């Protein structure tokens, strides 16, 4: 096993090799297989995604560390790509945060992001967010850094401060997190390319842009973001939103028409489904096994 790189080391390498690195949200193991197959280099497990998809809950800090770890294990069990995970506010104080680092590392995550919202958190693109003090956020980052069991586990500090406190304060926080040992900064709910530029000018560590749909941030292209020094671009729920709309259409159509003929063309075929699963290689093994027994 000596040559096997840890997930964290793979993520660090992917950031070095891709300018910027695109991270796509994969709501489950199967979508992770598809993202890997089409050529993505890094995956993301969204906190909103775990809450919405796995539990039918809103993204308001109601899911536990174990809930998230279960989804991490399912995804990392199916793919080789590094997975960045949303740790929300870290589930409590320094001990809870340390436990999150350890458990997520054991579950196969490459790293996490921890944010400066209060425990009663909201989606970063919603109004009326509340944030903790700069000192408390720095403590969250220090607790994360100190708890590493794999030196390459990637610790990203997310600041939600822009909405309430403005650009200067958000950058001050980002700098304090960098000084506390954060490997990267997640600049949340940024409005303009100029603001990203201000973050990247101020910081030495990589900066992530969250390009989530129907939020505060325009859907900037990766080239525009690279142009202002952004190192990582996140698409946390893009595929999930598309899947949801497709599923709704199918449910409605079956109800309205009494069969699914009108929507079959919108479906992945059985052959396509099996292709991403390498289904036939399994079946061949099974056939070979039974053949030898005859
Ligand atoms: C990135 C995020 O934290 C997530 O949980 O995926 C969300 C995404 C969203 O709600 O669009 C966030 O930006 O808060
Ligand atoms: Mg989240």
Automatic annotation (TrEMBL):
<comment type="subunit">
    <text>Homotetramer; dimer of dimers.</text>
</comment>
<feature type="binding site">
    <location>
        <begin position="210"/>
        <end position="212"/>
    </location>
    <ligand>
        <name>substrate</name>
    </ligand>
</feature>
<dbReference type="GO" id="GO:0046421">
    <property type="term" value="F:methylisocitrate lyase activity"/>
</dbReference>
<protein>
    <recommendedName>
        <fullName>2-methylisocitrate lyase</fullName>
        <ecNumber>4.1.3.30</ecNumber>
    </recommendedName>
</protein>
<feature type="binding site">
    <location>
        <position position="270"/>
    </location>
    <ligand>
        <name>substrate</name>
    </ligand>
</feature>
<comment type="similarity">
    <text>Belongs to the isocitrate lyase/PEP mutase superfamily. Methylisocitrate lyase family.</text>
</comment>
<feature type="binding site">
    <location>
        <position position="86"/>
    </location>
    <ligand>
        <name>Mg(2+)</name>
    </ligand>
</feature>
<feature type="binding site">
    <location>
        <position position="188"/>
    </location>
    <ligand>
        <name>substrate</name>
    </ligand>
</feature>
<keyword id="KW-0456">Lyase</keyword>
<comment type="function">
    <text>Catalyzes the thermodynamically favored C-C bond cleavage of (2R,3S)-2-methylisocitrate to yield pyruvate and succinate.</text>
</comment>
<feature type="binding site">
    <location>
        <position position="241"/>
    </location>
    <ligand>
        <name>substrate</name>
    </ligand>
</feature>
<keyword id="KW-0479">Metal-binding</keyword>
<feature type="binding site">
    <location>
        <position position="88"/>
    </location>
    <ligand>
        <name>Mg(2+)</name>
    </ligand>
</feature>
<feature type="binding site">
    <location>
        <begin position="46"/>
        <end position="48"/>
    </location>
    <ligand>
        <name>substrate</name>
    </ligand>
</feature>
<dbReference type="InterPro" id="IPR040442">
    <property type="entry name" value="Pyrv_kinase-like_dom_sf"/>
</dbReference>
<dbReference type="InterPro" id="IPR039556">
    <property type="entry name" value="ICL/PEPM"/>
</dbReference>
<keyword id="KW-0460">Magnesium</keyword>
<dbReference type="InterPro" id="IPR012695">
    <property type="entry name" value="PrpB"/>
</dbReference>
<dbReference type="InterPro" id="IPR018523">
    <property type="entry name" value="Isocitrate_lyase_ph_CS"/>
</dbReference>
<feature type="binding site">
    <location>
        <begin position="123"/>
        <end position="124"/>
    </location>
    <ligand>
        <name>substrate</name>
    </ligand>
</feature>
<dbReference type="InterPro" id="IPR015813">
    <property type="entry name" value="Pyrv/PenolPyrv_kinase-like_dom"/>
</dbReference>
<feature type="binding site">
    <location>
        <position position="158"/>
    </location>
    <ligand>
        <name>substrate</name>
    </ligand>
</feature>
<comment type="function">
    <text>Involved in the catabolism of short chain fatty acids (SCFA) via the 2-methylcitrate cycle (propionate degradation route). Catalyzes the thermodynamically favored C-C bond cleavage of (2R,3S)-2-methylisocitrate to yield pyruvate and succinate via an alpha-carboxy-carbanion intermediate.</text>
</comment>
<dbReference type="Pfam" id="PF13714">
    <property type="entry name" value="PEP_mutase"/>
</dbReference>
<comment type="pathway">
    <text>Organic acid metabolism; propanoate degradation.</text>
</comment>
